[in-house]
Every structure is written in C-alpha cells, then in structure tokens.
Amino acid sequence: MQVVVRENNVDQALRVLKKKLQREGVYREMKLRRHYEKPSEKRAREHAAAISRARKADRKHAERDR
C-alpha cells in the first residue's frame, strides 16, 4: 500500500493512509488477532454476523418495497 506525500504535507498523507487501512479492514483484523479465538467462538461470531447482515438486507428490501 502506498500513499503519496504532496508538498511535505505528512499529516494529510497519514490521514489518507489511515482511511485506506480502515477500508481494507486491517484494524479489524488486528483487533481479532490480539487474542486467540477458539474455532467454535469464531464460527459463532461469523454466524451472528451473517444473521445481522441478512436482517439488515431484509430491512433495506422492505423499506424499498414500501
């Protein structure tokens, strides 16, 4: 991943880098890898996330159909 520093503006380049890292999911991955997660816990977490995504999609479809 690269960020171009223009006119010695390091602060702006740092903001751009942080935004790119967040969009790629690096921060989320670091948080998950901070501690060991049992495979059963990982499955349960992923299953719960899938359910919440499905519910959100259903809400959006229901709102669009109104």
UniProtKB/TrEMBL annotation:
It holds the Pfam family Ribosomal_S21. GO terms for cellular component: ribonucleoprotein complex; ribosome. One of its GO terms (molecular function) is structural constituent of ribosome. It comes from the Bacteria. NCBIfam families: S21p (TIGR00030). Belongs to the bacterial ribosomal protein bS21 family. This is Small ribosomal subunit protein bS21. It comes from Sphingomonas xinjiangensis. The lineage of its organism: Bacteria, Pseudomonadati, Pseudomonadota, Alphaproteobacteria, Sphingomonadales.
